[in-house]
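Technical note accompanying the year-one report. For the benefit of new consortium partners, we illustrate the data format agreed upon in the data management plan: each record pairs a sequence with a C-alpha cell string. No post-processing was applied to the example shown here.
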Amino acid sequence: MIEIKNIEKSFGDSKVLKGVSTTFETGKTNLIIGQSGSGKTVLLKSLLGIHSPEVGTISFDGRIYSDLSAEDKRELRTEIGMVFQGSALFDSMTVEENVGFPLKMFTNNSKSEIQDRVNFVLKRVNLNDANSKFPAEISGGMQKRVAIARAIVNNPKYLFCDEPNSGLDPNTAILIDNLIKEITEEYNITTVINTHDMNSVMEIGEKIIFLKNGLKAWEGTKEEIFRTDNQAIVDFVYSSNLFKKVREAYLMGK
C-alpha cells in the first residue's frame, strides 16, 4: 500500500498540489484522473521520487520516502516498475534486450537466469515469438506489452503506468487494461495508473482519485461514480453522451 498525507507541491509561485491525501491499495488498480493541469502528472512524479513535495509524506508500506537514506531509496526503486507513455523502448535493442535491461542493471543474475525470466514475462504478456524483433518491427499494442513485461520483470511491489493506452485503438486499449489488471491481481502489486481514458475508468477503476485544480475533488470506485452526486466528477466523466446514457441506464435500473 502507498499512503500519501497532505502533499503540497509548488513550482515558483504556482501551487500544483494543494494538500492531497489518499491511499493506493495493494492488489488493486488505482487510477488518477483529472483534466490537464489538475496535478495528476505531478502527483505521479512525486510518487516516483522525481518531484519532492514541500509539505506532506509519501509512504510505501510504512516506509516514509523522505526519511529513507540514499541506499534505502535505491533499494525501494528496485521494487518499482514503470510503464511510460509511448512505451519508451530502446529502439536499438531487441524486445528481449529491452525486457532484460532492468535485470542487467539491478541484479547479479546469470545470463541464463535473465533469459529464463525474460522468456517467462514475455509469455505472460502473450509475446512468445517476438524476442528477436526490434520495436519498429512490432505494433503499438505489442510495444505496450513489451513495456509491461519490462516493468514486471523485476517482480515489483509497485507498478506505475503513465497513460498506458495513449495512441492505441479502443480494442487494443481494452486488452492492455485487462492485462494490467490481471497482472496486478496475480502478483498482488500496488498499481497506480495516470489516465484520461474514461473507458479505463469504467473497466478497471477499483480505486479512483479525481484531481481538480490541485485538490482531491473525489475518490471512490467505478461503481460509486454512477451513484455520486459530486457535480465535478459527474461533469468530468460524463462529458460525452455515451457515458451520460450509461449512467442514466444504471440509475434507472437501481
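Partners are asked to follow this layout when depositing records. The first strand starts at residue 2 and ends at 11.
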